[in-house]
Write a structure and sequence with these properties.
- The protein has five helices and 39 strands.
- It is mainly beta.
- The chain folds into two domains: about 20-190, Single-stranded right-handed beta-helix, Pectin lyase-like (Pectate Lyase C-like); about 210-375 and about 410-425.
- The strands form three sheets. It has a 24-stranded parallel beta sheet that branches.
- The longest helix has 18 residues, at about 1-20.
- The radius of gyration is 27 Å and the shape is elongated.
- The N and C termini lie far apart (about 100 Å).
- The model is unreliable at about 1-30 (pLDDT under 50).
Length: about 425
């Protein structure tokens, strides 16, 4: 008899649970600071297309699966939803879902499951706006989702994890035509864009991460007016073509191999009017362009206060480097191959140019020629690099130029170097 009652109660509870799955599943109640329970299901159990719901203030628990399209869920900055350390917090599994003004915390820590504050799964035209995502392994995961907007969110990963084991702030996977703008991510591993084309990244800020944005097999993306500070790598384009990158500021890429922009086997990109400053490397070219006919245009950028302004990993040709402003770098351009002169250098400003401009046309009368002197030493002996930037190496460089005791390596020639008289006077 007792067994029959037990099974009857079990069936009844399962039946009630099934009735709660309209639009939002796995609902749990959580007491607020006054000890009162806030049943989220009572607000959303009858959710239907076209609804716009303002959640009651309080703390709720996840995970939640939102499966009704064309809905808006607004926390008005007074709602926290916790994943309770189990898995992702919110799953958006229908088109045209908008969530905003919600604090999302405490996901699971599984990188395999990509535990995230918000997972958008095969859903188009979704919006995640003005949310604060904290203590979540991953922030926002767009999986095969298109035409979405991710805007004005603050994202950080699990504080206790080392950098390499944290998740990504925003992750795009086979997702196109999305806009990621005005977000701020910090204390995360990377922000990644894989197999995802035709996306826009505008006015974002990333501080203290590993990669600010890492593109892999992702073409035709636009990167405009972002600010990335104190990361290991600012932007890295790997096997990704037709990128247009304009007016970004990347500063303080930390570590001995820190770089503002990395180009690996990538072609047909336009790198225009950016600032790459105070870093180990300004731009790192690694077998780029991958196809010589698909030119990379590097134009109008400021590259300053770097150990090396531009590093070329090989002798490949195909980069057009024009109208850039290089100053206060310890080494303007360095190549690990024989020369960088297979690329086109023209109308750049070099603060170490030693020529004149007698006809006052702001173009040097003689070409700018760069040779590698003391830099050639640490390419053979890495211990010499310990003294990089020290006065002793500057003296050695001067003596090498005055009376070379070894043949310097020719690096590049700029036929029309920009000459700024005011700079020379100072």
């Amino acid at each position: 008899m007792k067994t029959s009652i037990f099974y009857l109660l079990l069936l009844l509870s399962l039946s009630l649970a099934a009735q709660e799955t309209a639009g939002l599943t796995n609902d749990f109640d959580f007491p607020d600071e006054n000890g009162e329970y806030l049943p989220l299901s009572s607000q959303l159990k009858n959710l239907k297309p076209g609804d716009s719901i303002i959640l009651q203030p309080g703390v709720y628990t996840g995970p939640y699966h939102i499966t009704v399209p064309h809905v808006v869920i607004d926390g008005q900055g007074k709602v926290t939803i916790s994943g309770m350390g189990n898995e992702s917090v919110l799953y958006l599994e229908a088109d045209h879902i908008k969530i905003k003004n919600i604090r999302l915390i405490h996901t699971g820590d599984s990188p395999d499951k990509i535990d995230a504050g918000v997972k958008v799964i095969k859903s188009d035209y979704c919006v995640v706006e003005n949310c604060r995502i904290q203590d979540c392994l991953f922030g926002i995961d767009l999986f095969q989702s298109n035409h979405c907007l991710v805007a004005h969110n603050e994202i950080s990963s699990i504080e206790s994890k080392p950098m390499a084991l944290k998740g990504d702030a925003i992750r795009l996977w086979y997702s196109t035509f999305n806009t990621v703008q005005n977000n701020y991510w910090h204390n995360v591993r990377d922000m990644v864009v894989w197999y995802s084309s035709e996306n826009h990244f505008l006015y974002n800020k990333g501080i203290g991460n590993r990669y600010s944005i890492h593109f892999m097999y992702s073409h035709n993306n636009r990167i405009h007016k972002n600010q990335f500070y104190g990361n290991s790598v600012g932007i890295f384009l790997m096997y990704s073509e037709l990128t247009i990158m304009t007016e970004n500021t990347i500063e303080g890429s930390i570590g001995s191999t820190g770089m503002c922009l990395g180009l690996k086997e990538t072609s047909s990109n336009q790198i225009l009017n950016n600032r790459f400053i105070y870093s180990a490397y300004g731009i790192h070219f690694d077998v780029s362009p991958f196809v010589a006919e698909k030119v990379n245009t590097i134009q109008g950028n400021e590259i300053a206060f770097c150990n090396v302004g531009m590093l070329f990993h090989s002798d490949l040709e195909g980069n057009e480097i024009t109208g850039n402003y290089l100053h206060n770098n310890l080494t303007q351009v360095y190549t690990r191959g024989k020369t960088a002169n297979l690329n086109k250098f023209d109308h750049n400003y070099w603060d170490d140019y030693q020529g004149f401009d007698r006809d006052n046309d702001n173009i040097g009368d003689m070409p700018y020629k760069l040779y590698s002197y003391s830099e050639h030493l640490w390419s053979f002996n890495k211990n010499v690099k310990f003294f990089y930037g020290a006065p002793i190496l500057a003296v050695l460089d001067f003596l090498e130029r005055l009376a070379p005791f070894s043949k310097p390596k020719f690096v590049l020639k700029d036929k029309h170097p920009v000459y700024i008289w005011e700079e020379k006077e100072q």
